[in-house]
Amino acid sequence: MLLPLAVEILRDTAPNQAVGGWYDDDLLYAVVTRGPQAWAEAPDLARNLKETAAMLSDLSRYVKQEVDDFLASLPEGI
Q1: What is the dihedral of CA 8, 5, 56, 71, to 10 degrees?
Q2: Which of 1, 39, 50, 63 could form a disulfide bond with 25, CB atoms 3.0-4.6 angstroms apart?
Q3: CA-to-CA distance for 70 and 39, rounded, in angstroms?
């Protein structure tokens, strides 16, 4: 499964966003648009992605909406 690797890449690159002021959000979009079942099967990954998303501030409008939808779909406590 590639999802763990994708979340790891996002987590590793997110802190650099503040330096560059821009984030390439193609990978982020691909990850946050996975269905709820993917996250139900991997709650630790969902938690890591939630923490990573909190680090990002300069997202395009369409990806920001997808990130917000992802966050809203997470069960309480993740």
Answers
A1: -110
A2: 63
A3: 10
